[in-house]
TrEMBL record, chain A:
Transmembrane intervals: 6-28
Region feature Disordered, mapped onto this chain: 57-77
Pfam families, A to Z: FixS
Name by which UniProt lists this protein: Cbb3-type cytochrome oxidase assembly protein CcoS
Keywords for this protein: Membrane, Transmembrane, Transmembrane helix
Gene: ccoS
Biased composition, class Basic and acidic residues, residue ranges: 58-77
Length: 77, 804
């Protein structure tokens, strides 16, 4: 076996593992594992409705920010 | 009569007591108006899938009235303290939500908050029940958000996240990331190392070897500099304050081995030791991580307790009721407490009479009746009527906030024995490092070759690496902890095993620790003419522990009990209950109640219950808080193990001695307040004795946090559990004995292990200094010594099984 081949195999396998590790660390940083019970149970409630809720919350946030901006612009007048 | 579940809270009730509601198609049954209200709300909001998600689990029926005390959430003082305005100008608050049982509850709360106008973000932690809510203050207010939560049957308290939580959380998250990187590197470096070792003995081509070396280098670098950062930090602080610690040795050992491996990798001479570097760093780090984890749990419980304390009180000024923040109340203000409220400021009663539950302070299960001019203490709960009292201290000066402050302080300064262990390891490290340095200089002079000198010096460090010494304690304690857990004894930190093994004094609380904590009927006399069903129903109207004790007794001894229907039920404060049954006037309660009603009765023991019908006593019960069954045997064993046992209690002298004699305790201190219990612990500590304190209530918490080892009994108050070092899961005293056994066996094994590893180092280091050992062999023998230590630790398990 050539040294080059070994190098490719080793780097690919460690690289793949590192990608998974980084993803895990990212999840940890953003607080996705802070709540064990939710992490386990929330799977049951993860459906279309949850997605709709998430979209709705985003919409609400945008609207509120919009309102802020508008009222902020009007203030100086 | 058939039983049926309430359609909202799923608790089981007699069908007759349930409210029937036929407004929504098929009839629905509810245990109370609260449940009915929530059910209708969920129906109208289209959230009935909550009940499917609940999956048959029961929840608590709603209790808090919708609008009570809401105004306080919009006070400026409150906003200043709890509400944070984020960068975008939205408000943010941290709440603790009461009444969450399961994932469905979390789902419902989040869902309702999502639907609320103006709420921009809501996330609830299902484990700690802490919620973070972001809202637009132009669209809604906090009081209306809290009202929404209450409307679906939960309640929310604000808490200050800056207190402890954020700090502990960040530390935990950081340590977890570091551990993950370390574990990842270790796992991967192990399989590469296997190839390396095989190649060492069977031969390997140079180019393949350098590929493997480089892969190891890539893995070892983050492990050493990211995971191992804590050692560098520890070593740096040590250096700054002029001491050498285990951290220093690990940091120097690991960096030297790393540096040499770098040299070997690039020069192509000699072996690399990246695998040893990674493993040493990761394994020792795992132990540190466990410590951080336990700290976080304690903080969670403390926050929950502080969160449930009222932050506002009703003060009467100029004949008007106003709501004031507790910090603003001055001594001399008149405060009003209503039934069910917790007193937060000490004071003296001005008008009214009510019974107060002081169990969280004194541990006594019986509520106390307080009339005019009597002192009430913060921490007690007003049970049955409205009382006005004059504050005798400020909030800061009150007993309750003193206890909370002390707890906060004690929680941050727990580790003691570890520093000692570290200082020993530190001296050891210093010796090893100097020997290695001398070896290097000596070999450099003798052989004249820098490389040879460095290889020998590294061999010395690697072979003397305190792995065995470092593992000696953690592995043995790990096994000890495991055996303990099997027996229902949880040690919160490894070092507590050691502390406990050294203890010679055991201090015990009475109520709930030595005794069952609930009064039980000792003697009963029931007139044949007595209608037991009526008595049973009357007992059901009171939640007083004495009534509950008698009720339990009736359930055990009488067949086919049915609750009779009573009319005009009237609770007489702290004395008993009066009611009407058919045409008869009935009453049940203490002798004082009978005297007031002018009913002749016989005197019975201190805790008793009398039942009368139309002025004639028909039943008498004498109750007693009985000692736990195994108390006597366990205490005898403990005394045989050369442990001095003493009882500390807030109860009076006769009650204390009675129990003491029954269980065979000869030393008793009675009528103690929480801080006096702590003083007793201190008194022993001043004599240099290690003290174990076992208790269950908030009244023991101070003493618990003062003691070297604090043991909370299984059903104890949450605060007591979080202040304790050892938790007994099955609430039996037998596990207290087990705790002593496990800790002593473990401690002995630790001493053997340390002895062995020191012996190992004493024999191998000279060999290494003389150059008989190359780094490879050094690493192998180091691993072998670790295995011996681990094997010895495993014996704890078998030793304890034989002991059974």
């Amino acid at each position: 076996m050539s040294g080059g081949l070994v190098m490719v195999m080793v780097s690919v396998s460690i690289g793949l593992g590192a990608v998974a590790l980084l993803a895990l660390l990212w999840g940890l940083r953003t607080g996705q594992f802070d709540d064990q019970s939710k992490f386990i149970n929330a799977v049951h409630f993860d459906d279309e409705e949850a997605l709709r809720d998430a979209a709705m919350m985003e919409q609400k946030r945008k609207e509120a920010q919009e309102r802020r901006k508008n009222s902020g612009k009007k203030m100086p007048e | 009569m058939s039983k049926r579940r309430c359609d909202h809270c799923q608790l089981l009730y007699e069908e007759a007591v349930l409210l029937c509601d036929e407004t929504v198609g098929e009839p629905r049954f509810f245990c109370c108006k609260g449940c009915q209200g929530v059910y209708h709300l969920l129906q109208s909001e289209g959230l009935e899938s909550f009940y499917d998600k609940l999956g048959g689990q029961s929840i608590t029926p709603p209790e808090t009235p919708l609008a009570s005390g809401l105004e306080k959430f919009d006070l400026d003082k409150f906003k200043e303290r709890y509400i944070k305005v984020n960068d975008e100008g939205f408000c943010e608050i941290s709440l603790i939500i009461e009444g969450i049982h399961c994932a469905a509850c979390v789902w419902l709360n989040e869902k309702v908050l999502f639907q609320k106008e103006g709420v921009l973000e809501a996330s609830i932690n299902g484990t700690s029940h802490k919620a973070r809510i972001v809202w637009d203050s132009e669209a809604t207010s906090l009081s209306s958000i809290i009202q929404t939560i209450r409307a679906i049957g939960y309640n929310a308290h604000p808490y200050d996240p800056k207190l402890q939580e954020e700090h502990a959380n960040a530390a935990r998250r950081e340590y977890y990331s570091r551990l993950l990187v370390g574990v990842f590197a270790t796992m991967n470096i192990m399989w590469i190392a296997i190839a390396q070792y095989a190649g060492y003995f069977t031969g390997m081509r140079g180019d393949i070897k350098s590929v493997l070396n480089f892969a190891e280098f890539v893995l070892a670098t983050p492990a050493l500099f990211y995971t191992g950062w804590v050692y560098y930090r520890g070593a740096y602080y040590g250096f700054k304050h002029g001491y050498v610690s285990m951290d220093t040795l690990i940091a120097t050992g690991a960096s030297l081995a790393y540096g040499f491996s770098l040299y070997a990798m690039f020069s192509g001479n000699g072996e690399t030791y990246f695998d040893s570097v990674t493993m040493i760093v990761t394994f020792v780090f795992a132990g540190k991580y466990l410590e951080v984890l336990t700290k976080k749990r304690a903080v969670d419980t403390l926050d929950a307790m502080i969160g449930s304390l009222p932050t506002e009180v009703t003060v009467i000024r100029d004949g008007e009721k106003i709501l004031l923040h507790v910090e603003e109340v001055q001594a001399g203000d008149v405060i009003e407490v209503r039934p069910g409220e917790k007193v937060v400021i000490d004071g003296v009663v001005l008008s009214g009479e009510a019974s107060f539950d002081e169990s969280s302070l004194t541990g006594e299960s019986e509520p106390k009746l307080k009339g005019q001019k009597e002192a009430i203490l913060s921490g007690s709960i007003c049970l049955d009527s409205v009382v006005r009292y004059e504050a005798s201290a400020t909030h800061q000066g009150s007993i309750l906030s003193k206890i909370v402050t002390l707890l906060e302080v004690s929680m941050t300064k727990k580790p003691r024995i570890e520093q000692l262990a570290n200082s020993i390891a530190g001296k050891f490290s210093l010796v090893v490092l100097s020997i290695a340095l001398l070896t290097f200089i000596g070999w450099f002079i003798v052989s004249g070759s820098f490389e040879t000198a460095l290889v020998v010096a590294i061999s010395v460090i690697v072979i003397a690496c305190p792995c065995a010494l470092g593992l000696a304690t953690p592995v043995a304690t790990l096994v000890g902890l495991g055996v303990g857990a099997q027996k229902g004894v949880l040690f919160k930190e490894a070092s507590f095993l050691e502390n406990m093994a050294k203890s010679r004094v055991l201090l015990l609380d009475k109520t709930g620790t030595l005794t069952e904590g609930r009064p039980k009927v000792k003697e009963a006399w029931i007139d044949p003419a007595c209608e037991v069903d009526v008595l049973y129903a009357l007992l059901g109207t009171s939640s007083h522990p004495v009534s509950q004790g008698v009720r339990e007794y009736l359930e055990e001894h009488t067949l086919a009990l049915k609750e009779a229907t009573l009319l005009d039920v009237e609770v007489v404060e702290a004395k008993g209950v009066q009611a009407k049954w058919k045409e008869h006037a009935i009453a049940g309660g203490s002798g004082r109640l009978m005297e007031e009603l002018g009913i002749a009765h016989e005197r019975v023991g201190a805790t008793h219950y009398l039942f009368s019908c139309d002025g004639v006593v028909l039943a008498r019960f004498a109750l007693e808080d009985t000692p736990k069954k195994d108390a006597k045997a366990v205490l005898a064993h403990l005394q045989k193990m050369n442990i001095k046992v003493e009882m500390l209690t807030g109860d009076n002298e006769t009650a204390a001695w009675k129990v003491a004699r029954e269980v065979g305790i000869t030393q008793v201190r009675h009528s103690l307040f929480p801080h006096e219990k702590a003083a007793v612990v201190e008194e022993y500590q001043a004599k240099g004795v290690h003290v174990v304190m076992a208790g269950d209530g908030i009244n023991d918490t101070l003493a618990l946090s003062q003691a070297d080892i604090a043991i909370a009994m299984g059903e104890g108050a949450d605060v007591a559990v979080s202040a304790s070092d050892v938790v007994l899961l099955n609430d039996s005293l037998k596990s207290l004995e087990d705790a002593f056994l496990v800790s002593r066996k473990t401690y002995r094994t630790i001493k053997q292990n340390i002895g062995f590893s020191l012996l190992y180092n004493v024999t191998t280091v000279p060999l290494a200094v003389l150059g008989f050992v190359n780094p490879m062999i050094a690493a192998i023998s180091m691993s072998l010594s670790s295995l011996v230590v681990i094997g010895n630790a495993m014996r704890i398990r078998t030793m304890l099984k034989k002991g059974k």
